[in-house]
Amino acid sequence: ILSTELNIIDNVLGKTNKKVLYKTYPQGNKNRYVDPDISLTKANNYKNIETYDGDADSRFFFGKSDLIITSRATSTIAWAIMTGTPTIYIDIKDQRQLSKEVYKLFEDSIFLFRYGETNWNVSLLNLINLPIKDILEKWNNKRKDRDTLIDFLFKKNNLKAGKVCSEEIIKIIN
After folding, report:
1. Which of 105, 112, 157, 159 is 20 to 30 A from 11 via CA?
2. How many of the other CB atoms lie within 10 Å of CB of 4?
């Protein structure tokens, strides 16, 4: 995970023409390690990157952002998508990947990049470096597909959520 983060910092975030707020996941990392977080130290080497190592969850920063970049299938991606802010998701092999079905929905509805594919970082950097009005135009063109994604993720199984959750709890208890 660390080498991936350092690669993203060096080859994308540190090279962009945009100001970046870099936050590690999960929050509270400063209490997990004795040594300073290496990715935060690396990010601090770039003038365009401001780091955050506090305990606030990412979702509290999204309202102040023009663009959100996240990776790994965690609740962060849901929060990001629901803000309406243009969202970039970096899918990283063997690191909390999306299911095939969700991957296809993401591909059509948000900005999706597969870490490690040929020139993935160049393509990502090209998108980030666009003027924000151009990014917003591309984002707005994905609106209909994003509505489908939101329906699938948050509405489709909404009536079954309690039943599925209780069945899982019963399995754990028994």
Report:
1. 105
2. 18
Mean pLDDT of the chain, nearest integer: 81
> How many whole angstroms separate alpha carbon 134 and alpha carbon 140?
10
Q: What CA–CA distance (Å, rounded) separates 80 from 97?
A: 17
> What distance lies between CA 3 and its chain's CA centroid?
17
- pLDDT attached to residue 18: 93
Q: Report residue 143 as tokens.
A: 């609106």
Nearest by Cα to 124 from 2, 14, 3, 1:
14
Tokens of 131: 């003027």
Tokens 């130290």 belong to: 41
68, 86 contact by CB (below 8 A): yes
The Cα 109–Cα 142 span in angstroms is 5
CA distance 52 to 64: 14
